[in-house]
Automatic annotation (TrEMBL):
TM region positions: none
Enzyme class, spelled out: transferase
Any GO BP annotation: protein N-linked glycosylation
Matches recorded under SUPFAM superfamilies: N-terminal nucleophile aminohydrolases (Ntn hydrolases), SIS domain
Catalytic activity: D-fructose 6-phosphate + L-glutamine = D-glucosamine 6-phosphate + L-glutamate
Keywords: Aminotransferase, Glutamine amidotransferase, Repeat, Transferase
A GO term for molecular function: carbohydrate derivative binding
Database matches in InterPro entries: GATase_2_dom (IPR017932), GFAT (IPR005855), GFAT_N (IPR047084), GlmS/AgaS_SIS (IPR035466), GlmS/FrlB_SIS (IPR035490), Ntn_hydrolases_N (IPR029055), SIS_dom (IPR001347), SIS_dom_sf (IPR046348)
Protein name from the UniProt record: Glutamine--fructose-6-phosphate aminotransferase [isomerizing]
Residue ranges of every copy of the Glutamine amidotransferase type-2 domain listed in the record: 2-212
Domain of life: Bacteria
EC number(s) given by UniProt: 2.6.1.16
Every SIS domain range: 271-411, 439-580
Length: 590
């Protein structure tokens, strides 16, 4: 998704902007640009389709600058559509979507304005130019009041050298300070390499960077806001060799250890009343986080403590759910900035539900919105494809499920004691990677593949398929093992790869039946199970032995070989698994 940066620095402002943009790259983008404002009030822009590295060249002078990585929504990726956009004395970068831009543009065209891009963002800078009567922040406030949709904005005004004004509604924004430099940025991880101190900016607030960071409300009243020191775990990661995704898969055991340590140190008392009295549990998330939520619903359904409803955030928002004050709403999001999940949580909050968040980014919008936040502590995840954060999300959700069972029934489920075995067992899963690598090489030319799983294995099948689609750009689908013959079996032909996950003893035979059916139609079959017996009795062409753990916890482990497989497949197919086509790490628009 688009990322914005604003920087005030007497020294090396251009270089600082470029290095901040490089830290925003992981969010996914297709063009980039910067604009610097000199002390004499000259705005100079450099913007290009493609990578941030395309902006390198003779440093642009100026002590205040703004920058942008664009993920196209309105208008194709091109030099013209790249930000910053300029009009009169103003330059602007924008993350978000302006929903009423067409009407605003119409109005500006009537007044004779000429637009140079197809973007929704360009209307904002034109409106600023019209609204400006000498008061920089006042003009920004006036314009923001006319915008519908979401935005994080950073703006330069030629009359105000050494200053940047910023605003936020519905898109993430954080301010930061370092020795000799002040920042606003879309993203905490991207800012942490630059800033030593952080200060959150809330929806509806405005920021003015000059000799200090000043935060204002919508009426122009200054708000006291304190800074917190950047914690070491907030600092963005780097890899010496290989890809971030490979490194992040290798970090799963450590992430699980850190997550568990954090969970054991977390006081759940503040949510005891809500959990004990919960009539229903709702869980909403997107993509990979949604698959983790499905496993949470499975593990809770098994304990039969109360009704659990799990849905994607984008569906929850528009389904008029019967959620109320006796309910608990759990929002799961690695970034804590996913627009649909934030809106779903706001909706649940407006209905009086108790909100629990599970996030990996401290000080994210979600962590500040919820009544009780559970920090994942998986460490920064830079690759667009979620890996270690998924394992950590599952651990957090299972831990939360155990707390809920305890508050409702007075005792913890038996499997809670085995959570501490997960980091070691995850390491043991690495033993499957040789086989998965060979499989990736064998399946390099496959046209697509299926992933099957029953019950608790089904969300893992969905996640395996999502990983392959996302980073190997191959058609892949996850199905409940019993569902294939209701239509999708028609796609199975000679050599078509079908993975099956089978970790539930009571269902070994059922999953085996599904494998036999696809094998009889020519499929190349791969079975993953912890049971030597299930594997030895299987008709599968390739058999992968998983380490042993008690049944409900398998989702945390059985996904690891699939994550690794997808990564190898992506690399062998000549792709960059860290930056998949068309995708962004943090989806901050609806
Ligand atoms: C997973 O590999 C994806 N990149 C994506 O599905 C992601 O999980 C989803 O966009 C949700 O992100 P969040 O956890 O930051 O809310």
């Amino acid at each position: 998704m688009c990322g914005i940066i604003g920087c005030i620095s007497r020294e090396n402002c251009y270089e600082k902007l470029l290095s901040s943009l490089a830290r925003l790259e992981y969010r996914g983008y297709d063009s980039a640009g910067v604009c610097l404002l000199s002390d004499s009030g000259t705005l100079r822009v450099r913007k290009k389709k493609g990578y941030v590295s395309n902006l390198a060249g003779k440093p642009i002078p100026g002590g205040a600058g703004i920058g942008h990585t664009r993920w196209a929504t309105h208008g194709k990726p091109s030099d013209e559509n790249a930000h910053p956009h300029l009009c009169g004395k103003f330059a602007l970068v924008h993350n978000g979507i302006i929903e009423n831009y067409a009407a605003l543009k119409e109005e500006l065209l009537v007044q004779g304005d000429v637009f140079l891009s197809e973007t929704d963002s360009e209307v904002i800078v034109h409106l600023l130019s019209h609204a400006y009567r000498g008061d920089f922040l006042g003009a920004l406030r006036e314009v923001c009041a006319r915008l519908c949709g979401s935005y994080a904005l950073a703006v330069l005004c030629a009359d105000y050298p050494g200053q940047i004004a910023a605003a936020r509604r519905g898109s993430p924004l954080v301010a930061g300070a370092a020795k000799g430099a002040l920042y606003v940025c879309s993203d905490v991880p991207a800012l942490c390499g630059e800033a030593e101190f952080l200060c959150p900016v809330e929806d509806g607030e405005f920021v003015l960077l000059s000799d200090a960071v000043r935060v204002f409300d919508g009426q122009g009243r200054q708000i006291e806001r304190s800074f917190t020191r950047v914690k070491s775990e907030q600092r963005a990661a780097s890899v010496a060799e290989g890809t971030f995704m490979q490194a992040e898969i290798a970090q799963v055991p450590r992430a699980l250890r850190d997550t568990l340590e954090g969970l054991e140190g977390t006081d759940f008392a503040p949510c005891a009343r809500a959990l004990r009295g919960a009539k229903r549990i709702w869980c909403a998330a997107c993509g990979t986080a949604y698959h983790a939520a499905l496993s949470f619903a499975d593990v809770l359904a098994e304990k039969g403590v109360c009704d659990v409803f799990c849905t994607t955030s984008s569906e929850f928002r528009y389904k008029t759910p019967l959620i109320g004050a006796e309910d608990v709403f759990v929002a799961v999001s690695q970034s804590g900035e996913t627009a649909d999940t934030l809106e779903a949580a706001r909706l649940a909050k407006s209905r009086g539900a108790f909100l629990i968040g599970i996030t990996n980014v401290a000080d994210s919008s979600l962590s500040r919105l919820v009544h009780f936040n559970i920090a994942m502590r998986a460490g920064p995840e830079i690759a667009v494809a979620a890996t270690k954060s998924y394992n950590a999300q599952l651990l957090c959700l299972f831990y939360l499920a155990a707390q809920l069972v305890f508050f409702k029934k007075g005792s913890f489920p038996l499997w809670k004691g085995e959570l501490r075995l997960l980091p070691e067992r995850a390491e043991e899963c690495f033993g499957t990677f040789g086989q998965m690598s060979a499989l990736a090489a064998k399946l390099i030319s496959a046209k697509g593949m299926f992933f099957l799983g029953r019950n608790a294995d089904f969300p893992t099948a969905l996640e395996g398929a999502l990983k392959v689609r996302e980073i190997a750009c191959l058609f892949a689908e996850g199905y409940p093992a019993g569902e294939l013959k209701h239509g999708s079996l028609a796609l199975v032909e000679e050599g078509f790869p079908v993975f099956a996950l089978s970790t539930r003893e009571a269902l070994f035979a059922k999953t085996e039946n599904a494998l036999a059916e696809v094998r009889a139609r020519g499929a190349y079959t791969i079975l993953l199970s912890q049971s030597e017996q299930a594997l030895s009795q299987s008709c599968a062409h390739c058999k992968v032995l998983l380490p042993k753990i008690c049944a409900p916890l398998y989702p945390v482990l059985s996904v690891l070989p699939l994550q690794y497989f997808a990564c190898r497949l992506s690399l062998l197919r000549g792709m960059d698994p860290d930056k998949p086509r068309n995708l962004a790490k943090s989806v901050t628009v609806e």
